[in-house]
Amino acid sequence: MQKRAINPTEWLRHFQLSHAIEVTGGERVLYLSGQTSTDADGTTLHKGDIVAQFAKAWDNLKDALAAADMAPSNIVRLNLYTTDVATFMEKAEEIVPIWAAEGIQPAATLLGITGLFDPDLMVEIEATAVA
After folding, report:
1. What is the pLDDT of residues 69-97, one digit of tens each?
2. Which residues contact 65 (CB under 8 A, 6 or more apart)?
């Protein structure tokens, strides 16, 4: 499988993101449902801490990838949902390194929403991965 980042402008690279990702030769596509800051029983963790919530949601996303014999390097798209866009952007310098540490630069969308299934959740991460 080959992935090619397509970036007609450079500004998204500051956030370790791409405008588009082209995939050729992929054999499997994995659509991951939204992952949140919850433990194995579904209990919400890290109330009020958007960075810790993102980190836990990211760990849950990596667990789902591993269960499908994939890794973060297989991610081509992220959808990031937050109930607080202003705080997300304020903390971006702490959040971005969480996925940047994996060496990925996916296409992504950040969406501000009014709420998640638990009012204490601030972030949900959805992804598409290709192998």
Report:
1. 999 999 999 999 999 999 999 999 999 99
2. 30, 32, 71, 72, 74, 75, 127, 129
Of 72, 129, 131, 130, nearest to 104 by C-alpha is 72
How many Å apart are CA 35 and CA 92, to the nearest integer? 18
Q: Does the predicted TM-score (pTM) go above 0.85?
A: yes
Identity of the amino acid at 82: T
Three-class SS state of 102: coil
Number of structural domains in the chain = 1
Q: What is the CATH number of the domain that holds 46?
A: 3.30.1330.40
Print the domain residue range for 80.
2-130
